[in-house]
């Protein structure tokens, strides 16, 4: 997102009535001076934290730190509020290195600077260490269209594993009001009733899991986060992920932006509507969602995933509904299923990974002979 241009407002601040207004507040178009903007922005986040009892004295909290604007502002503001209001929490930065060259390596350099700027410990865990795959390798194997699905599942688990390594069971993320409203719209538009009911939860915790996820920016507008970072001159990384954002989320995002331009309060209104949804039990679906759904078989009948018509990946019902045991049989991660989603996805990748071996015994003109075995492919 580009740095916002200061809006020309030749009037006095509508809050202090003393200083000159320098901006129209994106949330309600109120004309404010910089100091009053800082005050309302910080106070609203503090009120959200208090109203939802997000922290208790003595808590150790990991901030999911990507180096982007949201998590950088989150780290900065949690440090400010923790000191101002004596929350008594210990804050740690937790970063996941997905292995995306030219993107995550640069953003992690920003997080390392933030570590010094905010005087917080930093833990970095990588997909390569956890799963033996980088996102670059996954994309070259599975294609770009499903990249967000893979990345989302793996990152969720990586954040839990990173938190476990730190002995922490609470991870805060920089998901903001725009993200929440986008998710409500997206789930509404694709009839994903089960997810719709959970779209607006500020605090989530899977059944049986010790890890809590919270979103202190639930009611915070993205434009205000960017303004805050800009005026406070925070050090953040502003490049978009190399891989395209999830196709349908992108559509919902565009729709939300168009709606916001006409009626800024629509972001809050969508969240409030989402909070009121009362979801009926999900009816059982007998047939695959898309006619052109393609199955990926991993040798084991239980480990089956489907690439849907819209390019997304979904797991077979059998796996989703298995409830015996709370630990993945393969990796031991907490799950309601026999095999966790990450292992199902990784098994699919392993099955389709071309096997490449270097045969050192046979020298051909001084070069190693490269022998490729392409499994499960026929020409
Ligand atoms: N690689 C990562 N390591 C740690 N936390 C992450 C990582 N990627 C995302 N998160 C967490 O999830 C939140 C939402 O991530 P998303 O991918 O939607 O990025 P975003 O909206 O651009 O946020 P940001 O501006 O913080 O990058 C982030 O604010 C951050 O708290």
Automatic annotation (TrEMBL):
Keywords annotated in UniProt: ATP-binding, Cytoplasm, Nucleotide-binding, RNA-binding, Transferase, tRNA processing, tRNA-binding
Function: Plays a central role in 2-thiolation of mcm(5)S(2)U at tRNA wobble positions of tRNA(Lys), tRNA(Glu) and tRNA(Gln). Directly binds tRNAs and probably acts by catalyzing adenylation of tRNAs, an intermediate required for 2-thiolation. It is unclear whether it acts as a sulfurtransferase that transfers sulfur from thiocarboxylated URM1 onto the uridine of tRNAs at wobble position. Prior mcm(5) tRNA modification by the elongator complex is required for 2-thiolation. May also be involved in protein urmylation.
Enzyme class: transferase
Organism: Scheffersomyces spartinae
Name by which UniProt lists this protein: Cytoplasmic tRNA 2-thiolation protein 1
Subcellular location: Cytoplasm
GO cellular component: cytosolic tRNA wobble base thiouridylase complex; mitochondrion
Presence of keyword Transferase: yes
Pathway: tRNA modification; 5-methoxycarbonylmethyl-2-thiouridine-tRNA biosynthesis
PROSITE patterns in alphabetical order: UPF0021
Positions of the Cytoplasmic tRNA 2-thiolation protein 1 C-terminal domain: 327-357
A GO MF label: tRNA binding
Limits of the tRNA(Ile)-lysidine/2-thiocytidine synthase N-terminal domain: 61-245
EC number: 2.7.7.-
Main location: cytoplasm
Biological process annotations from GO: protein urmylation; tRNA wobble position uridine thiolation
InterPro entries from the UniProt entry: CTU1-like_ATP-bd, CTU1_C, Ncs6/Tuc1/Ctu1, Rossmann-like_a/b/a_fold, TilS/TtcA_N, tRNA_thiolation_TtcA_Ctu1, UPF0021_CS
Positions that bind ATP: 64-66, 70, 96, 174, 179
Lineage, opening ranks: Eukaryota, Fungi, Dikarya, Ascomycota, Saccharomycotina
Family that this chain belongs to: Belongs to the TtcA family. CTU1/NCS6/ATPBD3 subfamily.
